[in-house]
Amino acid sequence: MMNKRTFLRLSAAVMGSRFVAPMMAWAGADKITNWAGNIEYSTDRLQSSASVEQVRDFVRKQSRLKVLGTRHCFNTIADSKDLFLSVKELNEAVTVDPAAHTVTVDAGVTYGKLSPILHEKGWALHNLASLPHISVAGACTTGTHGSGEKNGNLATAVAGLEFVTASGDMVRLSREKDGDTFQAAVVGLGALGVITKITLDVQPAFQMRQYVYENLPLRQMSDQFDAIEASAYSVSLFTDWQKQRINEVWLKSRMGSGQAWEARPEFFGARLATKNLHPIAELSAENCTEQMGVPGPWYERLPHFRMGFTPSAGKELQSEYFVPRPHAVEAILAVERMRDQVSPHLMISEIRTIAADNLLLSPCYKQDSVAIHFTWKQDWPAVRNVLPTIERELAPFKVRPHWGKLFTMSPKELRSVYGDRLQAFIKVARNLDPGGKFRNDFLDTNVFGA
Ligand SMILES: Cc1cc2nc3c(=O)[nH]c(=O)nc-3n(C[C@H](O)[C@H](O)[C@H](O)COP(=O)(O)OP(=O)(O)OC[C@H]3O[C@@H](n4cnc5c(N)ncnc54)[C@H](O)[C@@H]3O)c2cc1C
User: Fold this and answer.
1) For a substitution probing ligand 1, which of 144, 198, 362 has the most ligand atoms within 8 Å of its CB?
2) Which of 87-91, 161-165, 269-273, 385-389 has the lowest mean pLDDT?
3) Is 149 helix (H, G, I), strand (E, B) or coil?
4) What is the C-alpha separation between 115 and 95, in angstroms, rounded?
């Protein structure tokens, strides 16, 4: 269960300062908060390391610490009572191996910084999350994903990992050589050490077009779900669960792949938008990636939000639940029936598909999945009340929460959905970090205590 003792000290001061002072907080002039401002971390002691040697030296000397990425998680997974280490200055190296189709990057780099460099060199990643502002290491370690029924989450692109363990030693793991340990380490929840370098699969750069349709009848969604999801490289359905409709359908289509299509005015009863839209239609689309079929590079179409702008709504909370793809429609309709409980607290929901993978703690382990996401108004007491209802309704589908978003499922429930994989992960973690240097309350409660 979410640790309620350390979680969410929703002081008015933090809530109020969110927009004016996040960087001040980051710089130590104020308490350090996560991106959304709903969490004030339990220490403001922050050390930054700009080289692997500095990281090793620092880790050796500390008894307990957490690495902080770009602070985009909504729960306490990144929190520390002791000390933070930031590797965001470790972000320069981008080394492409054209023969292996991989790129090796410093772990502090964000997708927003990496992607244009990669594109310039003629390469692309298979997918991106809704925003490019997040660090590669922080995203992969929580199983962050985009959409597309044939696309695994972002961590499935990881071909190799280099990290500093609790003893200050370097460990290098590769997908090819390190089998089970590698599969445990990639979605590592920040529990195994300080990731300093990541090797990712790349493919030749490609162009995309993005189209948005409005008002897809719910009935079409349920009758034609498979056809809708198969209709583009990446498909996102946005709904407020009102009026028996999907408010917006975002289709991201690859050009030159045989999958690109000319937009028809109608899509399963939805109408082609006549201007760029924000997922929350009332908000300005200024911070959104280009739509209306304008061709552009992969990294400017796969995310919904543009680098350099505030993604999403800003002042919000997020939760997300994964269920097996075969149960997608049943699960979506179960949430739709809860609309009167959900909608008062909701900004928007997004439904995405993710391909199965073999990463131990991935919510999509060996299971093509659908993810039902909730962007909530920033009212934790209200959201905390509604989450157990959603979790209960989705429980028959072996629901799994996003590791970096808000949930109230108990450790027992997590144990029941992750089964033996949780024990296998703990074994690897104990081996690399016997004294629990990289553990915190979230991990102790939800993983090690589970
Ligand atoms: C506006 C918004 C939109 C989002 N959209 C999506 C989306 O489309 N899809 C999705 O799946 N998620 C999404 N998320 C969630 C986000 O992708 C995850 O929270 C992700 O983990 C954020 O990465 P971070 O670097 O900010 O992590 P942080 O919150 O800083 O840290 C997360 C974890 O990573 C660990 N960590 C970070 N760096 C390292 C390192 N170098 N070595 C070891 N451990 C490390 C931390 O210790 C912690 O355990 C969104 C979040 C926001 C705020």
Assistant:
1) 144
2) 87-91
3) coil
4) 13
Phi/psi at 247 (nearest 5 deg)? Answer: -60, -45
Is 190 strand, coil or helix?
coil
> How far is the C-alpha of 161 from the C-alpha of 174, rounded, in Å?
6
If you search the block for the tokens 């269920």, which residue do you land on?
323
Question: Using CA atoms, how far apart are residues 266 and 263, in angstroms rounded to an integer?
Answer: 8
Whether the Cβ atoms of residue 234 and residue 151 lie closer than 8 Å to each other:
yes
Strands 207-217 and 270-272: antiparallel
Q: Fill in the amino acid letter for 174.
A: S
**By three-state DSSP, how is residue 300 classified?**
helix
| Paired tokens of 348 | 């928007």
Q: Residue 14 has what pLDDT? A: 29
Segment 167-188 shows an average pLDDT of 97
The token pair that represents 85 in the structure block: 């280490």
Ligand 1 is surrounded, with C-beta below 6 A, by 35-36, 66-73, 77-78, 87, 107, 129-131, 134-135, 137-139, 141-142, 144-145, 189-190, 194-195, 311-312, 402, 404
